[in-house]
Amino acid sequence: MQFNEQYRSTCWWLTWKDLAWPDEDVTDDIRRRADSAAQTGINCALIMGAHFRWDFMPLWMNLHDMISFIGDQLHQRNILLFDHHSAVLTHRYSNQEEAKAMRLYNRHHVSFAPSRDIASEWTYKGQKLDDWRMIDLVTGKPVFLNRYTAEQFCMNNPDFKNAYYDYVKKLLAETNIDGLMCDDGIFYSGWTSCGCKWCREKFRLEYGHELPAVTDTSFWGNYRNEGFKDWIEMRFKTTGEFLDGVRKVTGDDFHLMSCCSSSASAALPRHGMTYQEFIKPCNHIMLEMGFVPAPDGNWYRAFPEQMLHLGIGRENNAFCLGLGYGFTEPIADFVWAFNKFLGSGTWFSTVKGRLGLPDSKMLSLKDDTELCGNGFNWEKTHLSVFDAVPDSELAVFFSRWSRDFYSMTDKDYTDDYSATCLDLLENNLTFDVVTTIPQASEYRVLILSSASCLDETERSALNKYLKEGGIIIASGPLGCYDKRGNKTVKPWLEQFDITCKINEPERIASFPPGSKQEDIAPACNGTFKGAEVDNNEWIEIINNGGKLLWSPARIQNSAKDLALAEHIRRFMSEEIVFPADTGWKFRLFRKGSSRIIHGLAGNFVLTYMDELEKERKGNKERRLIDSIRKSKDVSSAFSLQLRADYKNINFYAPLTGVKKKIPVNNGLISIKLDEETYYFILEAESGSQN
């Protein structure tokens, strides 16, 4: 099916009753849910349940037949169907307590799992499944994930890879799915995996190293050891190669993505997880926003991660789906509004199986296909409003090498990147995140915060950016190390008579790596032409037609003292000026000569389904939210200043149904909102004002 819109997606949950397929009650329910999906404005559904797909091997024929029927029903209603399953995880339990935990905390998987003695005999085309398992480096036994009551197959095991790729061929042949979310192909247990013979052989043949015992801290966690850095590189390479094998099976035009909750954290080398690798074979990106807002009403803690994934998507012309979780219409509405604010497609999911409620109690909660009608149907009838791109002269650079080969904790780099994104959000400066140095014609201003590690291509590109007239605003250590975290002969800033020094803490090698490292930000200081630069002082240099502003201060400690937003605004046109201290967050988009403004309340007050909450067992982190309202510190009346000539200001409050025109008076537009409105859109057409 041709696809030219942003995604309006929900989950299509499989439950225990669906295993009765082809029972007529099941077929009737599928038709009913397909009708509901169409009425809700959904254009894509993703299979959830039957998640640990290898556990369902005896039922594959029936399962695929049911998925095919679901696809037929959805296609008749012009809705895409993606399968979503774990390629590598398998539920395994040794006793009734483990079985109980498996079904309490992962009920949504439909945990149809074999016992260990039965699983030990399972084969696929002559290969024992147990021979594919990851091996724990500490115990020498198969990796066990308590969180999932599961073991994991290894992506470097050629027998497993061939078997999984064969399964994907079978899946595509026996169903009519339009896409696949291939899940969990990372080193889930972290540094303890994997010690199987295939990982050891790959490390030996491709990198020339024998993998040492975990007691050898001359290797483990030693960021001065090139072999350990090779181990990090191999982990990222492994996860990308595994997905590349899936792509070879599906063909280039098939919709493919993977699960990725983060691409910024310093913890990612332990898992080999980043969409910077996944995007090479994938053409879709997942923005996992989790349960938003948080209980304190905050929604932007993961905003830096979401901006990075949006940036990777933009750079690779890939669709983005923002996955938000919840259980009720108020949260489905918010997840949709948040995605539109970001400029992303939407994926809403309930994950009822982790609520710790029996089926009889969950019957009072609506199906995913029934929850998103408010936002989805409004979007469906106003597609032109969302056919826009971020209107930004400003880019924030994300330094992969600073994360991969230098960061023992987030304080080394990621916290500076995140603090930068949050400071720009707080000051309502629309920006993009870039993972490569752009051209000055793309972005007038480029922000680099503590990008300690730069490769030669990035150094050259920064010089070219300045020569093109671009403005670089940099803080903290910049280009002191090469891409592998080694000191360079000439740090990048030295060409400007700037000496930048990092007061590095003691780097403690350990297993697991980073576990003994003190979580403090390395202090930075510097000189300009031999004179000491104060910590919150900006040095400004004109070079080759461009400008460089640099301060030794770390953004994570000094964002407000540095007045970063004020310095950025010196170089930006800002045709629309957003008011300060209203509690609103704004993002600006452009469509031709018109501007689209999205406003989202910065904080919320939540109420809960208290009676149902009382009956829950297990983890109560995921709350049943009954209502969501903007907090009292979010203004209901304010003005926006227009510095350009706009007319026909259209105001939309999609979730309350308000639509009106707003006049422009002396370059100001006045916004007055009711208490129910926490998200609105302004459409400003360029031209002479009437």
Describe this protein's structure:
The protein is of the alpha/beta class and 690 residues long. It has three domains: 8-111 and 164-181 and 237-387, TIM Barrel (Alpha-Beta Barrel), CATH 3.20.20.80; 394-569, Class I glutamine amidotransferase (GATase) domain (Rossmann fold, 3-Layer(aba) Sandwich); 576-686, Immunoglobulin-like (Sandwich). Helix content is 29%, strand content 23%. The strands form eight sheets. An eight-stranded parallel sheet has the order 9-8-3-2-1-12-11-10. A six-stranded antiparallel sheet has the order 13-24-25-32-29-30, covered by helices on one side. Strand 16, helix 17 and strand 17 form a beta-alpha-beta unit. Helix 1 (24-40) runs parallel beside helix 2 (60-76), helix 10 packs across helix 16 (414-426) and helix 16 packs parallel to helix 18. The longest helix is centred in the middle third of the chain and has 25 residues, at 226-250. It is globular and about 70 Å long. The chain starts with 7 loop residues before the first strand and ends with a strand. 49% of the residues are buried. The mean pLDDT is 94.
